[in-house]
């Protein structure tokens, strides 16, 4: 009897451990906490997706298709009645009219009519439905150009393509040169596209030019020339070098002979220079 009791106790003590170990070796995922964590995440995602799939969003019942109607539990006859009604270019404007046309049950209409969404002019009869004639020529409103040198941030932002950022850049550029001598200077502001410049040139002109003391290009030094808008030390040095080798400048066209001169800015630069002694 004592031997039997000892044997049973030893069996109870050792058997579960060895059984559990064998199960862990045979089915390791059953005892993997990370595995169960991933399963829980997938289950939660599945629940959310199921709820999202079952969600019914507001819709206009006039445009129910065969597929949508079957999803909502309408019979083929009910769907056909709606489609036949719509072929006459007619619309239902209430849940009651929808039921009269399709002959859906009271249970169906009470369940799904809460999701019906009709146009504002239907739900708000006091609102006037405006008729738009798309064949009528669009009225062209003439643009009255104003002076760019007196334009405010608000004035600039009225132009398509100009927001607060570029409006501020234009103002800073204007302050830098103490006013624009030509609208073409807007073209050289970094970031302004050709299309935006075209819009700016329609709305703004240089009505009042700033007072510019023109620098004599045939007497100016390198340091004086480099302060001219759109010129730098390298260009100024080349201008003086060309002058010393070829004589005085007669007109702006001679700048074309200078290597790396900003050709696209010749007309603007020449407005700040004087070519005669």
Commentary on this structure:
It is a single chain. Helices cover 48% and strands 3% of the residues. It has helices spanning 2-26, 33-54, 66-71, 76-87, 95-102, 106-112, 120-123, 153-156, 164-176, 194-203, 222-225, 233-246, 266-270; strands at 146-147, 204-205, 215-216, 273-274. With 277 residues, the protein is mainly α. The strands form two sheets. A two-stranded parallel ribbon has the order 1-2. Strands 3-4 form a two-stranded parallel sheet. The chain is elongated, with a radius of gyration of 41 Å.
**End-to-end C-alpha gap:** 135 Å
Oligomer: single chain
Alpha-carbon Rg, integer: 41 Å
Gross geometry: elongated
Number of helices: 13
Average pLDDT metric? 81
Helix content: 40-55%
Strand content: under 5%
- Could you give the count of β-strands? 4
Low-pLDDT windows of residues: 127-132
Q: Strand sequence of the main sheet, in spatial order?
A: 1-2
- Name the helix and strand elements from N-terminus to C-terminus, one letter apiece: HHHHHHHEHHHEEHHHE
* Largest sheet properties: 2 strands, parallel
Task: Label this structure with key terms.
single chain; 277 residues; mainly alpha; two-stranded parallel sheet; 13 helices; 4 strands; 3% strand; elongated
């Amino acid at each position: 009897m004592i031997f039997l009791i000892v044997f049973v106790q030893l069996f109870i003590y050792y058997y579960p451990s060895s059984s559990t170990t064998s199960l862990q070796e045979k089915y390791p995922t059953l005892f993997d906490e990370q595995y169960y964590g991933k399963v829980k995440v997938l289950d939660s995602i599945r629940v959310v997706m199921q709820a999202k799939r079952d969600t019914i969003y507001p819709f206009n019942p006039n445009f129910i298709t065969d597929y949508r109607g079957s999803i909502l539990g309408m019979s083929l006859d009910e769907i056909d009645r709606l489609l036949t009604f719509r072929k006459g270019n007619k619309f239902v404007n209430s849940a009651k009219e929808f039921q009269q046309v399709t002959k859906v049950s009271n249970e169906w209409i009470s369940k799904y009519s809460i999701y019906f969404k009709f146009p504002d002019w239907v739900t708000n009869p006091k609102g006037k439905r405006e008729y738009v004639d798309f064949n009528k020529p669009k009225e062209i409103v003439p643009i009255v150009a104003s002076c760019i040198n007196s334009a405010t941030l608000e004035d600039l932002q009225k132009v398509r393509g100009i927001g607060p950022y570029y409006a501020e850049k234009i103002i800073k550029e204007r302050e830098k040169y103490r006013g624009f001598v030509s609208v073409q200077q807007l073209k050289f502001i970094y970031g302004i596209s050709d299309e935006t410049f075209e819009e700016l040139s329609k709305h703004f002109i240089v009505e009042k030019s700033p007072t510019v003391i023109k620098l004599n290009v045939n007497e100016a030094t390198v340091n004086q020339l480099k302060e001219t808008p759109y010129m730098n030390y390298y260009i100024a040095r080349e201008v003086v070098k060309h002058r010393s080798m070829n004589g005085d400048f007669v007109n702006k066209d001679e700048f074309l002979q200078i290597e790396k001169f900003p050709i696209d800015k010749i007309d603007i630069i020449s407005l700040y220079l004087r070519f005669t002694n």
